[in-house]
């Protein structure tokens, strides 16, 4: 498991611009292996193999394979894009436990 400080930007948008209205700071223990399994499962449910996802996002195949294997996790900005693509919350992509550190 990996301890990762995470900053999630919450915004409201209208047709012309996105306006930042606040930040949520979460410190938790992210299980990168389980996060990789979850990301892989959700991706496949939406028809995205590692190859297709790498092309769609502009990452190397090796990077996406590392995410799926749970060797690394996507950066928060990439998680925001993935959540939007799959119409889920970021919390639906990441497996973590909230604990005081």
Q: Could you walk me through the main structural features you see in this protein, from its secondary elements to its overall organization?
A:
- This protein is an alpha+beta fold and 101 residues long.
- The protein has a single domain (2-14, 26-98), classed as lambda repressor-like DNA-binding domains (434 Repressor (Amino-terminal Domain)).
- Helix content is 46%, strand content 28%.
- It has five helices and three strands.
- The chain has a three-stranded antiparallel beta sheet with strand order 1-2-3, with no helix packed on it.
- A hairpin with a 4-residue loop joins strand 1 and strand 2 (18-30).
- Helix 2 crosses helix 3 (61-69).
- The longest helix has 14 residues, at 32-45.
- The protein is globular, with a radius of gyration of 14 Å.
- The two termini are 14 Å apart.
- The model is unreliable at 7-25 (pLDDT under 50).
